Each structure stands twice: as C-alpha cells, then as structure tokens.
Amino acid sequence: LLNMKTTLALALISIFTLSVLGTTHFSENFNDEAWTNRWVESTFKGSDAGDWVHTAGKFFIDENDKGIKTGTDYRFYQLSSVFDEFSNKDKDLVFQFSIKNEQQLDCGGGYIKLLPANVDQQNYNGDSPYNIMFGPDICGSTKRVHVILSYKGENHLINHNIPCETDTFTHVYTLIIHPDQTYEVLIDNVEKRSGSLSEDWDFLPPKQIKDPNQSKPEDWVDEATIADPDAVKPEGWDDIPQFIPDPEAEQPEDWDAELDGDWEAPLMPNAEYQGEWTPPMIPNPEYKGQWIHPLVDNPDYEYDSEIYSFKTAGVGIEIWQVKSGSIFDNILVCDDPAEARAAAEKIIALRDHEKQAQSAEDEAARLEQEEEMARLEEELEEEDGHFHDEL
Predict the structure, then answer these.
(1) Widest Cα–Cα separation across the chain
(2) Average pLDDT rounded to a whole number, residues 341-355
(3) How far apart are the C-alpha atoms of 321 and 109, rounded to whole Å?
(4) Which pTM does this prediction carry?
C-alpha cells in the first residue's frame, strides 16, 4: 500500500511539473554543424538565393555559440524546418528568436514565420502559406516590427507601428499570444506593445455600420455661418486703386522726353486698397449642426473566440536583403512565457557583452588615431626645425 501511494504521489508530482514547465515545441540554437540536416534550403529562387554562414559573429562570449548569417548581398533567403504539428488552443503561444544585424541593415527583412503543416520545403517562397510572420523589417524610413497573423486564408498586419532596433547588436524579439485573445510584443524582455487581437487587427468586420436606410435630409442645414444679408458695401470701395504712382519717385536727370516719351512714375502697392469687398460672415440662424449618420448593428459581424488559435508545424525564414550580415539564432516556440523570458535573459547578456566589446574597440581606435595624429605632428615639427636650420 505504501509503495502504491508513493508511486501515485510521484506520478502527480510529475504531472504537476510538466504542467508548470510547459511544452517546448521547437528550439534551435544552431550551435552544431548538423543544423543543415534539420533545415531545408528552398531551391525556388535558384541563383538568386544567398548563402548562409555558420558563425558566432564579430563579438561573442562563447565562440561555439553560433547562429546562421546571411552571406550574400542582394539575395533571397528561404529556409525552413518542420516539427510535429501542435495546436495552441487554450494555451499561450510563445514565438521568440534573436537577430544581430552586423552589417547595419539598411534594407531587408529580419523576420521569421510560423508555418502550417505540409509546406513544400523545396519550393518554400514568399507565397507559401504561414500562420504568423514576426520580426523586424528595415528599408529606408520603414523601421518596424511586423506582426502579421493569418485568419481565414488572409494575412493581416497589425494596425500599429512598433519600432524595431536598428543597431548592430543582438536583440531578442518575443511574441506572446494568449487564449483570451490578447497579445504582447517584447524586445529584449521589454514590452513594446500589447492589446487585443480583435481591436488591433482587422480580422472581423466592424460591430456597427452606417444605417443604409438613413440619409441626410435634403433640408438639413450644416453651414455654421452665412454672409450677412444686411451688409452693404461702403461707398467708394471700388474707387480705390490697387496700385498708385510712387510719390517719392523722381524723373531721371538724363530723361529725354523726345526720345523716351513722357516720364511716368513707377507704380507701387496702394496701402489704402482693401481688395474685393465681401460681406462679413454671421452665425447661420438655420444651422442644425453637423449631421451624423446613425449607426446600426452590423448583421455580418460575428465574434470569433478562436482568432488566437493556430495549428503549427514549422518555422521558416523567407527574406530579401540588399546588404547581408544578419545572424539569426535562438529560435523558440513554446507555451511558457517564463521559459522564453529566462532564455531571453541569456541573450541580453550577450547583447551587453557586445556593447562593451564595441566600446572597447572604438576606444582603442580613437587612441590609435590620436597617437597617429601626434606622430604626424611631431614629424611636421621636425621638418620645420630642419628647414629653419638650413636657413
């Protein structure tokens, strides 16, 4: 009996632990050479496809902590990996990855997609279906985080602009979608946007529409002011010329009336001229205010409580870059925001190390430049000294 109770207790603890820890559906850190066996490069773009470079990047804590870097300028990158299909119905969906744009990305994508089942990996391309497209996109003045969700076969972009990071350091992007149809977007574990799926995307038609059976009455007066009908134009208003001869102008001494004709003073704007007369405006006694079209409930509106729910079976990178050099890494798909937050903290530590290393490099370069300038100034002074000695 004791053994039976012990076994039951251990089973309950195991179930509780699994429920607390959550489920990791996909995790990729690219640290081993075998990553190429887990991912399939699409052949869709042929010679226009860029090469991937397996690297830890310029600055790193561990040289074996690698990612995959876009390696060819002006190329497409189409890569995907699949896993067992899962549904996030009644659970959180957490999608997270890191990206480092070492090339100071000026035009190109840095986003990743969650894919449904049965995507043709060999021909994976921009028209391939996806559930979610998430991550930074930079080109010219566009510097935003894309959050595009698929709903009933159509892709919907979030209605808000979420600025992305634009420096050369590693940053971790996190999207969390909750079963209550709310969402969070985080960069480096800092919330950048949160809200409601139904309010921040145009998945559903509006709840209310303008009443099709109502229109503005023909006799509705919506002019707030009118010309004063009793106003009278002042006498002599039209007799005032717009321009008059300059009273201070003088005929030139060498003016020859026989050759040049009669001299006339040049014209100048008349300070008394007030323009064309218009009657003053007065409040319109018939004004009823701006007519507002009455609203009615939209018969086509129906709330969907499962907008948040997807069946997912893969991850894909499908981007174009003018200048290559973006390192993708640390891709995570799970149902536990705490797990993602802990993983992000490790990535943030790498970001901070990169910033320190870059500062040290910049300072070394500055000192080297100062030493070179001092050396050149010393040489110039020596040359000046030799020159004066010769004199």
Answers:
(1) 138
(2) 95
(3) 6
(4) 0.77
